[in-house]
Amino acid sequence: MSAPAVCSHCGEVCPTDRIRIEDRRFCCEGCRMVYQLLDANGLCGYYNMNEHPGISRRMPVRKDKFAFLDDAGMAASLVSFSNETETHVRLYLPQIHCSSCLYLLENLHRLEEGVVSSRIDFAAREITVVYDHRLISLRRVAELLTSLGYEPHISLRELGDASPGANKTLVYQLGVAGFCFANIMLLSFPEYLGLDGSEDGIRRVFRRLNFVLSLPVVLYSARPFYESAWKSLRRRFLNIDAPIVLAICVTFGRSVWELGLGTGPGYFDSLTGIVFFMLAGRVLQDRTYRRLSFDRDYTSYFPMAVTVVAPAASVKPLPEVKEGDTLLIHSGEIIPADGILTKGQGLIDYSFVTGESEAVEKKIGELVYAGGRQTGGAVEVLVVKEVVQSYLTQLWERGEKKEEGDPSFVHRLSRYFAFVVFGIAVVAGVYWVLTDPGRCWNAVTAVLIVACPCALLLSTTFTNGNLLRMMAGRRLYLRNAEVIERMAGVTHIVFDKTGTLTDVSHQDVEWRGQELNDADRRAVATLAGQSMHPLSRAIVGYLGEAPCYISDFKETPGRGIEGYVDGRWVVIDGQGVTIDGRLMGAFRFSNHYREGLSDLVARLPAGISVSVVSGDTARERVRLQGIFGPGTEFRFGQSPEGKVRSIRRLQEEGERVMMIGDGLNDAGALARSEVGIAVSADCSGFTPASDAILGADGLVLLPGFIRLCRAGRRIIVASFGLSILYNIIGLYFAVRGVLSPLVAAVLMPASSLTILLITYGSSALADRLLLGRQAEKDQAGR
Amino acid sequence: MIKVMLRGGGPGYFCDTMSVIILLLAASLLVALVFLGLFLWSVRNRQFDDEYSPPRRILFDDEKN
Hints:
The complex is a heterodimer of chains A (about 775) and B (about 60). With about 775 residues, chain A is α+β, with helices and mostly antiparallel strands. Helix content of chain A is about 45%, strand content about 20%. In chain A, the strands form six sheets. A seven-stranded mixed sheet of chain A has the order 16-28-27-26-17-24-25. In chain A, strands 8-7-9-15-10-13 form a six-stranded antiparallel sheet, with no helix packed on it. In chain A, helix 10 crosses helix 14, helix 11 packs parallel to helix 25 and helix 18 runs antiparallel to helix 19. The longest helix of chain A has about 40 residues. Chain A is elongated, with a radius of gyration of 32 Å. Chain B has about 60 residues and is mostly helical. Chain B has four helices and no strands. Chain B is elongated and about 60 Å long. The interface between A and B is medium-sized, with 28 and 26 residues.
């Protein structure tokens, strides 16, 4: 067989070669349509940008899918600006992925009259469309985008308050600190180089200017440190920011004192410099991923509006759906509220809610829970519980919050550090009081200035920031830097099965029955190729594509497919494959496990045990045991509460647990465990609340991630040790009461820069050793 | 402008080194302040939010219909 043909639009393998325009082949009607659309509008330059730029769109758009956007109230929640002629609307398009998307979507005005302009925010995957509402409606805009393969994701969340923008205060504070620091440095140079007495006037002016320039730093830029220190003191706990604030205050106080008496230039340069560097570390560490959300709740999972058929046919916003309403759920839609099936055949995929890997059949009169996705035909559901009281919503609310953990080791380290420093300050103070009381004040303040644990803070924030950045490069996105430390201490890893270890978009297929000859294979493949059901797709993938003439094709959702292929009657259903009335055998489907899982387990650092907790049945136990080897505990058929209990039991045994899951049924366990990692094929897609989001292909790198976090800890300690060296040099001057601003001004940047270089260099090295090598090996193995 | 001030202010006052340095200092601080303002403005204006599209957008042809 030759290499499978790929779609000219999206680059996916074409399941059939019937869909074509001249010699171009497409995987689906949608792609062909997009191609025609682009061709007709002279936008085929799109195809030259990337080799396979489009996004597959296999699901045809339902005609009234966006009917709810005609409702003024619902439209208003999306519109950001409107006047007599123009309306601006911001929509989330999760499918945006490359520069061609950018090109296509920013040329909307050429595809549709009425669109004035459009602009992409790539980082947020959002499009801002400006359109003339006298010519087209919002609904039309949404339909246009959908027809291009970019369906706007409009969730219930949009009805709520707009999410606050990223906090930029820290960046402003950093900017101000940088400005003041640089200028103070400049104004301090004459002082370092030495001014003679005749330039006393200049010296006075420079010193006063330094004081003025340091004010914004002390009063504005250093605020995050004050707030954090105050917060920790109120909780009766000394964190690293408390001694830093003390140092800032002492340094500033002594500098003002010296300025007032005219005895010295003060330490304004060191003070602002250190605030600037510490803020830079903090900005690096607190980076946020705009596309990701670690606190998603059910509102971003549910649709914004649903079709109501009774008591009155309408499109209602979801919160207004009441008990007794009958909803029309189309194929592929999510059931938004618990209800009773009143019409149609339910084939509901609960894999995301319960972890069961197979779709559940529901008959009329049976209860269906919210959160499941209907995969069969359209059904009608009578609502028995309002959305907020549904099973799914309750599941979310119940997620237990972690208790405040032990203070981070950096804070503990800083506390010892603080005690030692205060000790030295007291000893030095007492010594000078006894020998030369005049120098006591000088010596004590100098000790406190030098001994500020800013080096520790710098090494922590820069190392963590760098680790976060490197892990994000390999598609592990941590919620914040604290997670790094918790990850380093993990002793037990709990995996969920469905969607985490398995890839739900693939199924392994096995043929059980008599040997199929070539004609039979072609016939079965052709029939299965007509259906969009995931199992049918798996069969086509297994048999390979073989187009034959087909007629009288019929698909009964939940039952099977049938049709005449080349004059033979073929049926594929729950029983198996029947050709011309003769049962030939059956396909067996099993979970498709992600590649490299046994390697993953083998590579885990010693001392980490593993278990698998699944909501699914035990039928895959043998295969899992083969992958994980002996010593792994398996628990099947676990409810969401059962998973939380498993985690709690492990924690009571003294384990520090990392939970890796993907679905809503894992939400409670993810919240309960020390580190909850949500696995997702598309990181900007929907994931339950968690500490980290991991791209599915990065799962095999997990041992490397854990080792990297552990290395981070060693890097912090090492660079801190080095900075103590600098501190000892500084203390040598300080206890003698002769710490000159020049010594301080040299020591401060020298120690900061060394720390910066060391943390940056060694964390990059650790990344290459621990993750890069593994990634290379994986590539070579393929 | 500085020259004008130097002359206009009379020789004794404006021409000594100190006042020249202070004048230059004020000017340089002013320039630095302008840049600080520009930085704050560009952050507020979301110019650092999306680092992907602007460098690609510039490559697209402006084809007018």
